[in-house]
Amino acid sequence: MTGAPQREPEAGPRPESLADLLGGRRGAVDATLPPLAFGLGWVLGGLGGGVLAAVLTGTAVAGWRWRRGDRPRSVLVGLLAVCVAALVALRTGRAEDFFLLQIAANAASALAWAVSIVVRWPLLGVVVGTALGQRTGWRRDPALLRAYGRGSWVWAGTYVLRLAVFIPLWLDGQVVALTVARAALTWPLIAAALAASWVVIRRSLPAGHPGLRHPVTAPVGGGEPAREE
């Protein structure tokens, strides 16, 4: 007599990652389309062709993002960035200056991330804490604060890497290479930073820590640490 078939144990839930918490890749992919259009338009029709292609593509991307429900402010900022980059290139008459705004933004971002770590307000903690609705609760957990600080260095490094690639190409007037680098160092680099900073955070947290969603804080006057729900 055969027994009832045994059920295999169900797999536990997949551990949550930073990519899950911070959203998908759509925004990063969308951001690469206007620069790619500019590079192609420049090759085919010079500076005017590149600017026209970038603005038209940026407008189409903004319309698509609007229809899929992105926040109006985010949509408008993305389109404005494309238009400003195009105006800078038209003003200087140098196609490579279309990427000047991106270079300036990366320099400012690298500085902002580094300063945030030094002043113990790591931006990775600010972003994730906001996404989780924790406000500043994560800062009262010393282990989590330290882990976010270490993870934030990964993101600061991505901006430094972009600058190390973009600036020499810009100085040399390499428009096509800038276009390729802009695409290669957007979504692929963001994906790598998400994975790397998640590994850094997990390895920085002590064994038994309940994770990002549950900061552990010590009550005033000592006693056992309390978990924030």
Provide a descriptive summary of the structure in words.
- There is one protein chain.
- The chain is an all-alpha fold.
- It has two domains: 25-93; 95-207, no CATH class.
- It is built from eight helices and two strands.
- A two-stranded antiparallel ribbon has the order 1-2.
- Helix 2 crosses helix 7 (175-184) and helix 6 (142-171) packs antiparallel against helix 7 (175-184).
- The radius of gyration is 22 Å and the shape is elongated.
- 32% of the residues are buried.
Please describe the topology of this protein.
Blueprint: H1 18-22, H2 26-67, H3 72-92, H4 100-118, H5 123-131, H6 142-171, H7 175-184, H8 187-204, E1 216-217, E2 226-227
Antiparallel strand pairs: 1-2
Average of pLDDT: 86
Shape: elongated
Largest sheet: 2 strands, antiparallel
- Please mark out the parts with pLDDT under 50 across 5 or more consecutive residues, or reply none: 4-14, 220-224
Radius of gyration: 22 Å
DSSP strand tally? 2
Number of domains: 2
The helix/strand series, from N terminus to C terminus, equals HHHHHHHHEE
Strand order of the largest sheet: 1-2
Protein name: MFS family permease
Transmembrane segments: 40-62, 74-90, 110-132, 153-171, 183-201
Keywords: Membrane, Transmembrane, Transmembrane helix
Organism: Micromonospora echinospora (Micromonospora purpurea)
Descriptive terms for the model:
single chain, 229 residues, mainly alpha, two-stranded antiparallel ribbon, 8 helices, elongated, transmembrane, UCP010219
